[in-house]
Design brief:
Jelly Rolls; 17 strands; binds 2-nitrophenyl 1-thio-beta-D-galactopyranoside; alpha/beta; TIM Barrel; 2 domains; 458 residues; eight-stranded parallel beta sheet; 23% strand
Length: 458
């Protein structure tokens, strides 16, 4: 029989969300045209005028990078709406773009649909333009816009409730809005912050630099999300005994700013930085939400496209071949035929290795057959069964007798959906995973070793 779940476990939305691994973020709005990041809400709608907007270009970039979902900023804190909402005049309706007949949300969701990409929406809770902000009338205004977006644009896979400037918005506001999300889009993931903590499927992880903690637990106490500023470390690391399952989503921009500024064309993050971000987000049991800010034309600039292509080539190249596949594997506490050790290296979604119920620790030896050179490790746990393993280390050996620790993979704690470690290349015929601590018997979905495929750095 299967191991019993332990502690908080993910809901169906969270399981789907983890499998996205990377999501693209598109900050595109009034700030794009005023060269701002935090407009004060007074800029004239006349300024919004992309000359060549093409959301199919955006989704083309994602397709070639293998990114399967994307989130568009429909309204940032300056209050300007990218779609012709019926609920304010501060929108594309009053811009020269397409004579006021344009709709960025429509073009985005249509492009996503034809590319097979899951569309999500950022509808900024904070609003500097609308004088009703912080009153009951604003609650109604936001609710109306939310249902407009959730009713008229097909499936929406994520709604993003930025906590920035949102302290006036009480739980009562979010209770109403969350009810509408759940009714209109049952599969929609909620990025929740501060007073929307109770509705959060995923959480902020405490910085905008792309670095989730080590460890990084999917569990946390909701009070840490609510009182964010006092709990940055808890957001970053999660809490091993947290009572809620709210994993981390890592929002970071490929450029210094969230919105496009031509002076940052030469400051797109280096491949080395993006590679570190990938390991510190996707590789730290989190989902990466990587921002590509479209420019004034309404296109993703060539510098960003090039970087995105290189990053995806490095990811695909590195993880193409698990050098542990085909290994002969010996463990101390195998659970039995349905949970056999080779399930860890079979590349199949449904199978995993598990230990017997009373074995929270184990020593798992992979005999690679021949010497292999590798510099990356991947571990995946069966997330449906909760966080189980809480202590692990990896060592290697030439002869299966004398073991050398990998310092970067020593004294590790969390695993979760995916944990990655990179280090200087080692050559070995044997690798061993020591599970040193657990809340319950181990359930390991994947153990992988890989050789990094690096591209020229810029
Ligand atoms: O000044 N800020 O508002 C700020 C500066 C640096 C990092 C974050 C923030 S606000 C913060 O943004 C997060 C998303 O990156 C979440 O929405 C948090 O709830 C919010 O407080």
């Amino acid at each position: 029989t299967a191991p019993s779940p332990v502690g908080p476990v993910p809901n169906a939305r969270q399981i789907e969300w983890y499998h996205r691994e990377m999501i693209a973020f598109f900050h595109f709005g009034m700030n794009t045209f005023t060269n701002d990041n935090e407009g004060d809400g007074t800029a004239s709608p006349q300024l919004f005028n992309p000359t060549a907007l093409d959301c199919n270009q955006w989704t083309g970039v994602l397709k070639s990078a293998g990114i399967t979902s994307a989130i568009l900023v429909a309204k940032h804190a300056d209050g300007f709406c990218n779609w012709p909402t019926a609920h304010t005049n501060y929108s594309v309706k009053n811009s020269p773009w397409k004579d006021g007949k344009g709709d960025v949300v429509r073009e985005f969701t249509d492009a996503c649909k034809s590319a097979g990409i899951k569309a999500g929406i950022y509808l900024g809770p904070h609003d500097r333009h609308d004088s009703r902000y912080g009153t009951d009338d604003y609650n109604n205004y936001y609710a109306d816009q939310l249902s407009e977006l959730l009713r008229n644009y097909g499936p929406i896979w994520e709604i993003w409730w930025d906590g920035a400037g949102a302290d006036k918005l009480t739980t009562a506001y979010y209770t109403r809005w969350a009810d509408s999300v759940r009714r209109l889009q049952p599969n929609c993931v909620v990025f929740g912050t501060k007073n929307s903590n109770a509705f959060a499927d995923c959480r902020w992880m405490g910085n905008e630099s792309g670095i989730s903690g080590d460890p990084c637990w999917s569990t946390i106490n909701l009070s840490s999300i609510k009182n964010e500023s006092d709990n940055i470390s808890a957001l970053n690391h999660g809490e091993i005994n947290g009572t809620a399952y709210v994993p981390a989503e890592v929002d970071v921009s490929i450029r210094p700013s969230w919105f496009y500024h031509s002076e940052e064309d030469t400051r797109v993050k280096s491949l080395a930085t993006l590679w570190d971000i990938y390991f510190n987000s996707v590789g730290h049991n989190s989902v990466l939400l990587l921002n590509y800010p479209p420019n004034k034309e309404g296109l993703i600039s060539s510098a960003d496209v090039k970087k995105s292509d290189s990053l995806s080539a490095m990811i695909r190249g590195t993880f193409k071949t698990n050098l542990a596949s085909g290994a002969t594997i010996k463990t101390l506490h195998p659970r039995g035929e349905n949970y056999k050790p080779s399930n860890m290296v079979d590349n199949l979604e449904q199978t995993y290795y598990a230990t017997t119920d009373n074995a929270k620790t184990d020593t798992i030896v992979f005999n690679l057959g021949t010497a292999k050179t590798f510099d990356v490790l991947m571990l995946q746990e069966v997330i449906e069964l909760g966080h189980r393993t809480t202590g692990w280390s990896v060592e290697y050996s030439k002869n299966g007798k004398n073991w050398t620790p990998i310092p970067e993979a020593t004294g590790k704690q969390s695993i979760g959906y995916k944990w990655l470690v990179k280090f200087k290349p080692v050559t070995a015929s044997y690798v061993r995973l020591r599970i040193t601590e657990g809340k319950a018997c181990a359930a390991i979905h994947t153990f992988g070793i890989y050789k990094q495929r690096m591209l020229e750095h810029d």
